[in-house]
Design goal:
The protein is α+β, with helices and mostly antiparallel strands. The protein contains 5 helices and 10 strands, in the order H-H-E-H-E-E-H-E-E-E-E-E-E-E-H. The strands form 4 sheets. Strands 1-4-2-3 form a 4-stranded antiparallel sheet, with helices on both faces. Strands 5-6 form a two-stranded antiparallel ribbon. Strands 7-10 form a two-stranded antiparallel ribbon. It starts with 6 loop residues before the first helix and ends with a helix.
């Protein structure tokens, strides 16, 4: 026996655009982002903002479709690689230009049945390939659990601010 989300609900994992729009609609805290289907418009946005962004391919890319740019030039190069050169195929047809948030990142999984959320163990993975948080994302070269950053207070906030509105949104959307 196996279980998992229906195709429509699986878009939360499979499409960053769908996820971002869902989070906006249901007030789930997330980094600000602009969504683009046209590389010229994305590049114009970067130049107008005058700063680098995290560039995310909309679709699944085996953990490699996120580029944390350190400069405007790196951001523009990432847009070119994803949208024009299609390094990740059709997953890069749409990109999100997201504000860069600094700090710890954790994965927090829950099982949902439409009414309840059952928390599983939190985990933290090694994101960047080089020491000092440098280099490209690894796509999952290792993880550990429990992460020290997820204190009881942090877990309570995750459940209240992220899980509860997500569950309510999924229910409202019939997902």
């Amino acid at each position: 026996a196996a279980f998992g989300p229906r195709r429509a609900a699986a878009q939360l994992e499979g499409s960053k655009k769908f996820s971002k729009l869902f989070m906006r609609k249901y007030a789930v805290p997330a980094a600000a982002a602009a969504i683009f289907d046209d590389p010229e418009a994305a590049i114009a946005h970067v130049r107008a903002a005058g700063k680098p962004f995290v560039v995310k391919a909309d679709g699944l890319c085996a953990g490699k479709g996120v580029i944390v740019a350190g400069s405007m030039e790196e951001t523009i190069d990432a847009i070119d690689r994803l949208m024009r050169k299609r390094e990740f195929g059709s997953a890069g047809a749409t990109v999100l230009l997201e504000e860069r948030l600094l700090g710890e990142e954790v994965s927090y999984h829950v099982l949902l049945d439409g009414e309840r959320a059952v928390p599983l163990a939190a985990a933290q993975d090694h994101k960047r390939v080089l020491d000092g948080d440098r280099g490209p994302n690894t796509g999952g070269m290792g993880a550990y659990s429990p992460p020290p950053v997820v204190t009881a207070d942090v877990e309570r906030k995750i459940l209240e601010r992220v899980v509860a509105p997500t569950l309510a949104g999924l229910r409202a959307e019939g997902l």
